[in-house]
Amino acid sequence: MTRHLLSVFAMILRSESWALARGIALSVVVLSMGATLLGLSGWFIVAAGAAGLAGTGAVFDVFRPSAAVRFLALGRTAARYGERLLTHDATLRALALLRVRLLARISAAPFEVMSRFRGAQVLGRLTADVDALDGVALRLVIPLLAGGVTLAGAWAVLAWLVDPRVASWSVLGLAAGSALALGWAMRASARPSRLAAAADQAFRVRVIDHLRGRAMLAFAGQLDSSLASVLDADARARRAGLQVARVERRAGVLVSVAVTLAAAGALLLGAELARGGVITAPKVALAVLAVLALAETVAPLRRGVAEIGAMRDAARRVNRMLQTTPDPRPMPAGPQPDIAPGLQLDTVTLAAPGARQPLFAGVNLTVAPGETVALTGPSGIGKSTLLNAVAGLTAVQGGRILIGERPVGDWTEPDLRAVLGYLPQRSALISGTIAENLRLGAPDAGDAALHAVLADVALDGVVRRMGGLDARLGEGGKGLSGGEARRLVLARVLLRRPRILLLDEPTEGLDRETAARVLQGVRRACPDAAILLSAHRKVERGWANRALPLIRL
Ligand SMILES: Nc1ncnc2c1ncn2[C@@H]1O[C@H](COP(=O)(O)OP(=O)(O)OP(=O)(O)O)[C@@H](O)[C@H]1O
């Protein structure tokens, strides 16, 4: 699991290595200045007192040490500011890049993978999981590296200036005690921090499900129980969050105990050595206060280790998503191929997504430009699955699908999308104006083209009543009836003037008369298109030139 955290850090390091290296260097400077400041202050106070007692106070140089104390105090603040700026900026930029990469992978996921995504979960990956990962660099790796380097440097300086035994007791004691405290905190918080993140994710998913399904839940009498499950997830997240905070506080107490023991040990050992005349009293004060300041090397790690369970889970999920979804295919804007794209199915065998057993086998079909063929057969036979395969979204088990005499798999994505239009069974409208929804299909289309295509799908009157092309729709096209929303999606498909047109139950939800008008409009909009449709209704079968009944194996 730690491997996932390391791979996230490696990714951050790769994209922001220079800024992070400078951040770590500044962090070492900040910690060293802090320790030097307190150590020097301790030495200064005791040395000045000793000089006063010895009657040499008048010649004791107070100017240089006090100037150094001021320089360290001011310089430390400036270095801290620079370090925060650099490390946060580098981390946030790397995470923004990660978010973009994740989104690109999700958007380019194969159809089978995409159709299993749950909106709220994907949103969770992109927001909560990526946010959780900011701690990997800021609260784990950077403080660990900077703290390690500072402690090693502090040991060397104290061993040289004071005494190796005092240095070893204080620095190594502090490091070992803190490591034990943080190790305990890491183990104790792993479960609650994971639970807190999972409950938070469940809360988001349930809130969205609750809001989306509230009408259905109200009719089923389940509104209260759905609300209770939302509140339950929230309560669990808060309980687990409190547990994490408790562990973090206790870890803080344990680290303070370790620091105090290290400083007290340094004082006792130093006093003994001072009594023996091995070192001077001001040097003992220097060591003791420097150790107290070195507690700062450990402090930022407390929160990092307390969050480690959530970070590990987030890193695992993000890595898995990056690995299981392929790199987006390049989308060169190639010229539209010069073909007469009829459609041909050559002994096609097809299975449902993820299934081995074929739905049907050996299907042959040719749809010439200007021709319309209706796929018929019982519900679940595989009409939609076949349309998905023709659209290049799923693979066939056997045989070939040719568009313009070229297998679908050999087409580049932009070329295929340029010749092929598809109205699937479920399709999306965005919240925005009617015009914005239509121009998703053809961004350069003028208002006249939009009005013409709306007339083709018999929506011109409806849009006029709503206030025209700038009338706004709510989320998922709210503001239109089911049949109107479907016709608006159909209009968006027609606007691209596709040469191959795939329609999955295009008149579902329309009365017979409107259905007939819409089907006539489709042909008017695309007179030369080869049209293949999944047809349940007589009006659709009657409109087609021929039917291809699919037969279960
Ligand atoms: N995403 C999916 N994952 C797994 N199986 C699926 C998926 N989509 C469809 N199926 C299965 O594939 C089979 C064919 O479904 P398909 O939707 O193609 O039938 P259809 O003929 O279009 O039905 P209908 O006329 O009711 O729309 C069904 O048994 C269905 O359960």
TrEMBL record:
Keywords: ATP-binding, Membrane, Nucleotide-binding, Transmembrane, Transmembrane helix. Pfam families: ABC_tran. Its main location: membrane. Residues 23-310 form the ABC transmembrane type-1 domain. Residues 343-553 form the ABC transporter domain. GO terms for cellular component: plasma membrane. It is found in: Cell membrane. GO terms for biological process: cell redox homeostasis; glutathione transmembrane transport. GO terms for molecular function: ABC-type transporter activity; ATP binding; ATP hydrolysis activity; ATPase-coupled lipid transmembrane transporter activity. SUPFAM superfamilies: ABC transporter transmembrane region, P-loop containing nucleoside triphosphate hydrolases. SMART domains: AAA. The keyword Chloroplast does not apply. It is a multi-pass membrane protein. The chain crosses the membrane at residues 37-60, 140-161, 167-185, 251-271, 277-295. The keyword Transmembrane applies. NCBIfam families: CydC (TIGR02868). This is ATP-binding cassette, subfamily C, CydC. It comes from Tropicimonas sediminicola.
